[in-house]
Design a protein that fits this description.
3 helices, Chitinase A, domain 3, alpha+beta, single chain, about 150 residues
């Protein structure tokens, strides 16, 4: 006859191992946290001097461009690279046109700070990017960066 106490102990041990396995798989699937620095950590690690808006958008204007600025109703033509602050690219494109009003809040705010020919680095807090829901390639609550060149707008 089997001992009911041993069955209970074995079940508890199996549940603990299963829980540890699930946690390990989750951490592995998410890639740990090496790609997910906060903006403050990124600024400190890279010894950057940024400006910050009231909403929390950090930016560096590398080239201000012309005096005329796009508005939310503008279609913008840009080159851009999107990256995780801890390393790794998630998106990028050259010579693409988008309606500014359809883009994430960080872009709406940041691209109105430069003119034609302008070049800006945007360090976007998650609430101005993809928020807690994330996107197909960006986990929720992730701060991200973009290097953007504004070629033209209308």
């Amino acid at each position: 006859m089997s001992n009911p106490v041993n069955k209970t102990n074995n079940k508890n041990i199996k549940m603990k191992y299963l829980s540890l396995l699930i946690i390990a798989l989750f951490i592995t699937a998410c890639g740990g946290d090496e790609n997910y620095l906060t903006i403050e950590e990124y600024i400190q690690e890279n010894n950057l001097e940024t400006q910050v808006t009231a909403s929390g958008l950090h930016y560096i204007i590398n080239e201000p461009g012309g005096s005329e600025r796009p508005t939310l109703s503008s279609d913008i033509n840009i080159d851009y690279d999107g990256y995780f602050l801890g390393g790794g690219s998630f998106d990028g494109n050259n010579n693409v046109t988008f309606p500014l009003q359809n883009l994430i809040e960080g872009w709406k705010e940041g691209l109105q700070l430069i003119g034609r020919g302008g070049d800006i680095t945007l360090l976007i807090p998650s609430q101005l990017a993809y928020g807690s829901q994330g996107s197909a390639s960006i986990p929720g609550n992730t701060d991200i960066g973009f290097d953007i060149i504004l070629h033209d707008f209308n």
